[in-house]
Amino acid sequence: MSDTTPPQDFAATVAQLETIVERLESGELSLEDALTAFEQGVRLTRDAQQRLDRAELKVRALSEDPDGKLEVAPFAGAPDAGNDSEETPPW
């Protein structure tokens, strides 16, 4: 994988971003190397955000009822399953 090609996997993108942040925080990079690492981090961050946006759209599409309203249901085995209050999603 080259520096310009984002990883195929979201977790790999996050791991690569963490590595870049550690390198930048170390303070051992030259200005040129720090700028290159920063640019790569920005590209990876944009890629990760696009992946998250696409995932959110898929979840919304799968969660909408025929009228376009979101169907909210607790996950099976959720710790507050006995709670009668219904949580409202952030959107």
Automatic annotation (TrEMBL):
Keywords: Cytoplasm, Exonuclease, Hydrolase, Nuclease. Its main location: cytoplasm. Its EC number is 3.1.11.6. Pfam families: Exonuc_VII_S. Residues 65-91 are annotated as: Disordered. It is an enzyme of class 3 (hydrolase). It catalyses: Exonucleolytic cleavage in either 5'- to 3'- or 3'- to 5'-direction to yield nucleoside 5'-phosphates. Coiled coil: none annotated. GO terms for molecular function: exodeoxyribonuclease VII activity. It is found in: Cytoplasm. Heterooligomer composed of large and small subunits. Bidirectionally degrades single-stranded DNA into large acid-insoluble oligonucleotides, which are then degraded further into small acid-soluble oligonucleotides. Belongs to the XseB family. HAMAP family: Exonuc_7_S. This is Exodeoxyribonuclease 7 small subunit. It comes from Vreelandella lionensis. The gene is xseB.
